[in-house]
Design goal:
Length: 448
Amino acid sequence: MSDHYDVVVVGGGVTGAGVARDCAMRGLRTLLLERGRPGMATTVSSTHLIHGGLRYLLYDRLTTHTTCWDSGHIIRIARPLLHRLPILWPVYADHTHGLETVETLLEVYDHFQEMKGGKRHLRLTPEETLRLVPGLEAKGLRGAVAFDEWWIDPVALVDANLESAKRHGAEVLTGTPVTGLLRSVGRVDGVVAGDRQIRAGVTINAAGPWVDKVARLAGTHIPLRLQKGTHLRYDERLTPVGLLLEAVDRGRYVFVVPSPQGTLVGPTDLPAPEDPDKVATTPDEVSYLLASVRRYLPAFPERFAETTVGARPILGQAGSEKLLSREYEVFDHGTRDRLDGLLTIGGGKMSDFRVMAEAVTNLACLKLNHPGACTTFRETLDGRPVDSIPEFPQAAPALKRFLRRHPRLREWHALAHLGAAFARHLAKRAAGAGSLRITAEDVSAYYA
Ligand SMILES: Cc1cc2nc3c(=O)[nH]c(=O)nc-3n(C[C@H](O)[C@H](O)[C@H](O)COP(=O)(O)OP(=O)(O)OC[C@H]3O[C@@H](n4cnc5c(N)ncnc54)[C@H](O)[C@@H]3O)c2cc1C
């Protein structure tokens, strides 16, 4: 091991692993430091979905766009780690959103599905819904809508990124917490890890919900609004398809995600303590998740293998808990805090980790005066060239920047699109078109 690198990355979740890979692929001498085991913090406590963020269409359309766009790249580079997961959203008479509203949302989502290799939605009658999920409560069922996402083993995704980074020359140290930052006047010169001092041209803080704790080592601060999320994990595969269920507190939803690793039920969505090390599941969350799933599947087992919990690394912002943007941001502490040599990548999701890594590595290259463009989307994680890369437009950056500063307008922007889509949907239904009558073959092809 050397004691001088171009880049030192702090944090070995999916974000840090993606950053290390990007830096190494551009030829930067790179070291990643992870205090525990890679991927075993927030990343493993996720819902395990590479998804576009259907619900952000209600208030933050451009995040759905970005996430779907980058999910497409992730799917192409990590295809063997993914399973297609069609999800069924059953709609009941007493639900907050009726079938027409739900189908409108899915019609809008259809526009983004192509970017991530997803199929268009299907609308199912109550009979078709019950055929697909025997045991589902029949009383009040109005029908369902099926849509497409991807399941992934998040730890395998982190490991594959790190393996790729190592093949491109990066070094990775696990079980190594960063305990301090090396400082000189107006600069961060690297990190302290136990009794070692490691110098770096650029230090990248990619510590997920811990980014503020790491930033504080340099006397600065990253505002966060952490949100806690718990899942119940079962060892068995308990449903034939994925489900999205309106929770018992109405207006919120929980997933049931069957996978080769068993079944996840969750997540919850609650304000988290400021210190991510203090995040823990409460008995109320367990009761809430069980009640929410057993309302629709009365025979769903009450005994689960374990709970998982994590803090979403959401950036500090005004507004209601329900409308928090999942956007990511690169913080340049040189311009922001007169601390050159330190960058933070904060916010975001697993489903856009690759573009987050690209954004912060672009800035690191600029700081280091290092040429080299991002190629992480051109090579699979196991080292093969990506065959074809469709050209989809990215979300307009200037509009994104503007709406970030105006959350109210960001919500109106999303609602205006949905309103127009709802009008089109109703006109189509009035004209007798629409998707109510699908065949058994359509359904089995969707679930093949
Ligand atoms: C309940 C829940 C469900 C979610 N579901 C999804 C989903 O289905 N799809 C999706 O796209 N996103 C999902 N997310 C969001 C997603 O999980 C996160 O955005 C993502 O995993 C964050 O990755 P990260 O690498 O930034 O953070 P982490 O995975 O937390 O990694 C940060 C790493 O930094 C390390 N670290 C911290 N301090 C130090 C230090 N001082 N020195 C060295 N290392 C340090 C930690 O040990 C940790 O491993 C979910 C989040 C939650 C909480």
